Amino acid sequence: MKFRPETLVYRVILKPHIEKQTKSGIVIARDERSQAINTDKGTVVFVGPKAECDVKPGDKVYYAKYGAKVLKDEINSDFYIICNDEDILVGYEDEELYSIEEKNIVEKIDINDKRQFMVTKVGYSDE
Fold it and tell me: N or C: which end of the chain has fewer CB within 10 A?
């Protein structure tokens, strides 16, 4: 499928992550369209010329799945996701780069029935 950049404006095209089997080896019986609809992870394929998000083709991202539209390439039978740049939530990497302590970046603290969130590694505190 070939996308015309001038028509995308502030949109992003993603290739959804579709799993054919789980990590433990169980085969997933759902069809690819339902998996494309029900996932919230994808790889960036194309970024519109006016998109304000800081992603580039090849980045792996989480996106707001209810703000996206599923497209099907009739030639290759591939599925794509088109969403607004503001629907890109966060980028991620698959590699295990961090220790267990560094994975627990966000700690929830309950003080006097007020909820606070503190990011310990970055040094941000919502007080």
Answer: C
Nearest-angstrom CA–CA distance, 2 and 40: 23
User: Contact, 85 vs 53, CB < 8 A?
Assistant: yes
39: number of Cβ within 10 Å:
19
Please report the sign of the dihedral spanned by the C-alpha atoms of residue 2, residue 77, residue 31, residue 71.
positive
In this structure, which CATH number among 3.40.50.300, 2.30.33.40, 3.40.50.720, 3.30.1330.60 belongs to the domain 5-92?
A: 2.30.33.40
Do 33 and 72 form a contact (C-beta atoms < 8 A)?
yes
Question: Using 50, 70 and 90 to split pLDDT, how confident is the model at 106?
Answer: very low
